[in-house]
Specification:
The protein is of the alpha+beta class. The chain has helices at about 5, 10-20, 25-45, 50-65, 110-115, 160-165, 185-190, 225-235, 280-295, 310-325, 330, 340-345, 350-375, 410, 420-425, 450-465, and strands at about 45-50, 80, 120-125, 135-140, 140-145, 145, 150-155, 170-175, 190-195, 215-220, 265-270, 300, 380, 400, 405-410, 425-435, 440-445. It contains 16 helices and 17 strands. The strands form 4 sheets. It has an 11-stranded mixed β-sheet, with helices on both faces. A two-stranded antiparallel sheet has the order 4-5. The chain has a two-stranded antiparallel sheet with strand order 6-7. The radius of gyration is 21 Å and the shape is globular. The two termini are about 15 Å apart. It comes from Pseudosulfitobacter pseudonitzschiae. GO terms for molecular function: catalytic activity. It holds the Pfam family Amidase.
Length: about 475
C-alpha cells in the first residue's frame, strides 16, 4: 500500500488499520503532509499548518498504542478545520490581516471532542476574509482554486475545506456554514458536505449563540465518514443553548440504503427566487431523483410559490458580522478585501428598520421551510444553479453565463442554501454528476430538524446508485 493509497482512503476504511496499529498514525500523517506539500501549490487550500507538531502528535498516538492503551474512536485520523474555527497550536487568522498570527488558547469544542478521541487536528483551511462571501480568496492567503479546473473558483466560504476534501489532504474536514458556506464548495469540488441542525454540534465560540446563522459541519468523500464525523462532534454543551436539544442517540445508516428508499417521499424544488438553472445541473438533479424513484422513493408534488426572503436573511447576517468585526475597519480597512470592508461598513441597510424586518423574516422563512417539508421526508434542489464560477468572479457582480446576466449572485447562484441557516433545518450537498466541461454538480437534500440520519440515508443511496468516490480531480493526480 502506497502513501497515496492511504490518502485516498476514507476515515471509515482507515480506522481499523490505525486502531490495530497496522498503519501507524505517523506514517499516515507523513503521507498527508507530503501530499499537501506536493499538490497544494496551485489549489492553495491550506492556510496554515504545523508539520512538526502534527508529527509529534501522531508519534505520541503510536507510542500510547504500543504501551497497550486503548485506541481512540478516531485513532490517528488527520483532520483539518476551516480558518474561522479555533484549533489550539494553530493561528485563527480568518483570512484577515486584522487577525494575523492570532493564537487561540483552546480548541473549539467540536475540534476538542475529536482530539480527545484520538484525531489529529493538523491544519487550517482557507476562507475568504471573515467568511463573508461565497468565493475563496483573501488578503492573507491569496486565491484558492478549484482542483477540477484551476481557472474556476472552489466556492466558499469553506472553500479550502472543499479543496482539502477533494484532494485527499486527510479524510475528515470541518467546515462552517452560514448561508451555504459548507454546501456550496462541497458541490463545486465534487464531495459530500453537511450542515446539521442548529445545536447538533455545539458552536459555543460564536459571539451570538442565540442569533448566529453559522453551524459547524463536516465534509468527506463518503457518506459513512460524514456520519462518523457528526457522531464524533455532536452532543450538548452548556455554553450553546441550541445544543440542549441535541439527540443523544448516534446517527446510523441502514445496511442497504437503496432498500431504505422504498416509500421515501421526495419533493423536488428546481427554482425559488431564481428564474434560471443551468440545463446540465437541472438534468443531473432530475437524473438523481429518477435513481431514487427507481429504487422505490415517491416523488411528491411541489407546493405553490416556494419563495424565500433570502435578502432579509442576509441582512441579519451582515448586521451580525458588522457587530462582530466592524470595529476593525478603521485600523485595517486599507488591507481588507474590498467586499469584506463594504459589508463591515455602516450603511442605511444596517438600520433598525432593516434589522427588524430581517428578524421577522426569519420566522417567515422557518414557516416556509416547514410548508416545504409538509407531506414529504426530504426536499431536494440543486446546490448551486451552475457548476463552479470563473476564478475572477466578484462577489458583488452579477452571475453572467455565456454572456447572459442572471442577476445578483446570491439570488442567481445560491438561492437554495440560505434559508436553512435562517430556519435551523439540516441540509447537505451530495455529488450527482459532472458537467460537459468536467466540473462537479451537486444536489442539496433538506429535511426536518434532527433528520440527519434521513438525509445521510438518501445520500448513501445515491452514493451506491451513482458512485462518485473513485473520481479524483486532475490536480490530485
Amino acid at each position: 500500500m502506497t502513501d497515496d493509497d492511504l490518502c485516498r482512503m476514507t476515515a471509515t476504511e482507515l480506522l481499523p488499520l490505525t486502531q490495530s496499529g497496522k498503519v501507524k498514525a505517523a506514517r499516515l500523517m507523513r503521507a498527508v503532509l507530503d501530499r499537501i506539500e506536493r499538490l497544494d501549490k496551485d489549489t492553495n487550500g491550506i492556510a496554515n499548518m504545523d508539520p512538526e507538531a502534527a508529527m509529534a502528535d501522531a508519534e505520541a498516538r503510536d507510542a500510547a498504542l504500543a504501551r497497550g492503551e486503548a485506541p481512540g474512536a478516531f485513532q490517528g485520523i488527520p483532520i483539518t478545520a476551516k480558518d474561522l474555527l479555533n484549533v489550539k497550536g494553530l493561528p485563527t487568522e480568518s483570512g484577515s490581516f486584522a487577525h494575523k498570527g492570532l493564537m487561540p488558547d483552546a480548541d473549539v469544542e467540536a475540534v476538542a471532542r475529536l482530539r480527545r478521541k484520538g484525531a489529529i487536528p493538523f491544519a487550517k483551511t482557507a476562507t475568504p476574509e471573515f467568511g463573508h462571501k461565497v468565493i475563496t480568496d483573501c488578503p492573507t492567503n491569496g486565491i484558492t482554486r478549484n482542483p477540477w479546473d484551476l481557472s474556476r473558483s472552489c466556492g466558499g466560504s469553506s472553500g479550502g475545506t472543499g479543496v482539502a476534501t477533494a484532494m485527499g489532504f486527510g479524510p475528515l474536514h470541518l467546515s462552517s456554514d452560514g448561508a451555504g458556506s459548507g454546501r456550496i464548495p462541497a458541490s463545486a469540488c465534487g464531495v459530500a458536505g453537511i450542515k446539521p441542525t442548529w445545536g447538533l454540534i455545539p458552536h459555543e465560540s460564536t459571539t451570538d449563540v442565540f442569533g448566529s446563522f453559522t453551524v459547524i459541519g463536516v465534509m468527506g468523500r463518503s457518506i459513512a465518514d460524514l456520519a462518523l464525523g457528526l457522531n464524533g462532534m455532536k452532543g450538548m454543551d452548556r455554553r450553546d443553548p441550541w445544543s440542549f436539544g441535541s439527540p443523544a442517540a448516534p446517527i446510523t445508516l441502514p445496511g442497504d440504503p437503496v432498500k431504505a428508499m422504498k416509500g421515501m417521499r421526495v419533493r423536488v424544488m428546481m427554482r425559488t427566487v431564481n428564474d434560471w438553472v443551468d440545463p446540465e445541473v437541472e438534468a443531473a438533479v432530475l437524473n438523481a431523483v429518477s435513481a431514487l424513484t427507481g429504487a422505490g422513493a415517491q416523488e411528491v408534488a411541489m407546493i405553490d410559490d416556494p419563495v424565500h426572503d433570502i435578502a432579509s436573511a442576509l441582512t441579519h447576517m451582515r448586521a451580525y458580522q458588522y457587530g462582530r468585526f466592524g470595529h476593525l475597519v478603521e485600523e485595517f480597512g486599507d488591507r481588507m478585501d474590498r467586499t469584506a470592508k463594504m459589508s463591515l461598513t455602516s450603511n442605511p441597510h444596517h438600520s433598525y428598520d432593516a434589522l427588524a424586518m430581517a428578524l421577522r423574516a426569519r420566522t417567515d422563512i422557518f414557516h416556509n421551510m416547514e410548508d416545504l417539508l409538509d407531506g414529504t421526508d426530504v426536499y431536494v434542489t440543486p446546490t448551486i444553479t451552475t457548476p463552479s464560477l470563473p476564478i475572477d468572479q466578484v462577489q458583488d457582480a452579477p452571475l453572467i453565463v455565456d454572456g447572459v446576466d442572471y442577476g445578483p449572485l446570491r439570488e442567481a447562484w445560491y438561492p437554495y442554501t440560505v434559508p436553512q441557516n435562517a430556519s435551523g433545518h439540516p441540509a447537505m450537498s451530495v455529488p450527482v454528476g459532472m458537467s460537459s466541461k468536467g466540473i462537479p454538480i451537486g444536489m442539496q437534500i433538506v429535511g426536518p430538524w434532527h433528520s440527519e440520519a434521513t438525509l445521510l440515508t438518501v445520500a448513501a443511496a445515491l452514493e451506491k446508485l451513482m458512485p462518485w468516490a473513485d473520481r479524483w480531480p486532475p490536480a490530485a493526480a
